[in-house]
């Protein structure tokens, strides 16, 4: 391994952040909304952000990780509450991803399922209720590793991000419904 280290991280040297972001956009990823509940004057209020820097860390024990910008409100709120929810979005939930990314307001489409004290996106493919076990500073982000306390999952096509644009998967031929059927389980 070459390069110097600073605080345990490799020195990026001459890697331009804009060029790195463009290169990393070539890695297709699912799109999630990471949420937490904060105390408001009338009870818990939902706060969320779109994230594609999310991954499964361990199956036993069940652990996941989300990477959040150190200066983001979401980081502070997750650090304060010690909990977060993850909603894996469906292909048709693109407007929600844009809303929680702060790109395009769509408050009329935001509906939460409040589960285990956390706001989770209604109709998402997967919903996870998580408790933070460790937080690690990493450059300009913080990695929040959490145990999965509860989960809910459904079938469907996921919303993906590739090259900065939303994408979907086409079902494989063996997964497509037969002609004249709805494809719904009986």
UniProtKB/TrEMBL annotation:
Keywords for this protein: Oxidoreductase
Gene3D superfamilies: Electron Transport, Fmn-binding Protein, Chain A
Segments forming domain Flavin reductase like: 24-168
Region (Disordered): 163-186
A Pfam entry, by short name: Flavin_Reduct
SMART domains for this protein: Flavin_Reduct
Name of this protein: Flavin reductase (DIM6/NTAB) family NADH-FMN oxidoreductase RutF
């Amino acid at each position: 391994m070459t390069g110097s280290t600073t605080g345990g991280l490799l020195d990026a040297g001459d890697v331009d952040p804009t060029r790195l972001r463009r290169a990393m956009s070539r890695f297709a990823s699912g799109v999630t909304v990471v949420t937490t509940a904060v105390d408001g004057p009338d009870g818990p209020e939902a706060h969320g952000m779109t994230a594609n820097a999310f991954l499964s860390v361990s199956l036993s024990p069940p652990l996941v990780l989300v990477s959040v910008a150190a200066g983001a409100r979401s980081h502070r709120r997750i650090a304060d509450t010690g909990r977060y929810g993850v909603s894996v979005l469906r292909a048709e939930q693109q407007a929600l991803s844009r809303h929680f990314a702060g790109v395009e307001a769509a408050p009329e489409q935001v509906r939460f399922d409040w589960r285990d004290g956390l706001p989770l996106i209604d109709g998402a493919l997967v919903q996870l209720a998580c408790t933070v076990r460790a937080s690690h500073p990493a450059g300009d982000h913080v990695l929040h590793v959490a145990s999965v306390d509860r989960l809910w999952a459904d079938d469907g096509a996921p919303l993906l991000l590739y090259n900065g644009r939303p994408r979907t998967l086409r079902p494989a031929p063996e997964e497509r419904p037969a002609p004249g059927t709805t494809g719904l389980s009986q």
